[in-house]
TrEMBL record:
Domain of life: Bacteria
InterPro entries (alphabetical): MoCofactor_Util/Proc, XdhC_CoxI, XdhC_Rossmann_dom
Domain (XdhC- CoxI) ranges: 16-78
Domain XdhC Rossmann intervals: 193-330
Listed Pfam families: XdhC_C, XdhC_CoxI
Record-given protein name: Xanthine dehydrogenase
Amino acid sequence: MNDICRVLEQIEANGKERLALATIIRIEGSSYRKAGAKMLFWEDGQRYGNLSSGCLEDDLAIHSLEVIKKNRCKRVIYDLQDEDGLTWGVGCNGKIEVFIEPLFSNFAISTLKNYLLSGRNMVTLKSLMTESPQATYLFTYEGKQVKEGEKAIFHPYIKKTIQEFIHSFEKIKIVTIEGEDFLLEKNNPKTRLYVFGAGYDAEPLVKLASSLDFSVTVIDPRESRCNRDFFPTAEKLITEHPSAFFQHHTINEAAFVVIMNHHFQRDKQILEELPYERVDYIGILGSKKRTEKLLNTINGSQKQKIHYPIGLKIHAEGSDEISISIMAELIQFRHKKWNTVH
């Protein structure tokens, strides 16, 4: 799950209400969620997200209210390794450290949101000191700091540490600099998914993808199908033929593409015009025999990015089940990429 995008959407939707953000920053052993998982708590008791199967959230709510009232951060450790203990109800066989910080709309949040919406990856650096108000620093994946006024990091060791973190496989890391703990975290935008084809079987796919942190664009020349009545959760709807689409639009870097036109010539044209160097994943709906015929003119390096028949093999039947099998494959591929790409 891409918790940061969901959190930013919730902050925007709830205006300037006072709230706290809880993030898992360290795990020993096993846990229900991974390091980097986030949850929001409002002053009036509302919650968004989860960090466990339900055993920690009530206690976290108490700590979060204290954080909001005092406007000070807090670090909390939960030891769930004792399965015979009754303290937390369910033993996760691990030790979890959670960082809770007061949260409100500011330069860092609005800038991070704008960068992620534009498809940029970002690194955040924040102090884990609990005695002072929270400060968040932003860096691009090129290592350049995005500054608010004179708010800059000049310590050379910090810059070196950020560069090493950007080129590591870690998503979140605690570093100690001159006796002070800092939290480094990579923040990824929603995955761009282009769906070619606005047939009935695309409807459950687009709905499911939108709920699973994909930013979906649907492309189909039929205005009677490619509209908000059938695809209310899509970010963009483009009513153009493939040839016109590739003339007028640029596919985002690291995009995912699903081809489900049920139209042989249209699918063939898409495969011939796709910018393969910009696309991470291409899936084609249809039989193996049909797809292999489509790929006659595609070279070997391009074929390596093409998945067919699309979807995990779960013996899916009907558009709803097929959409689940497709999304399972896309999620599997996305997590594999996040775990292997810097």
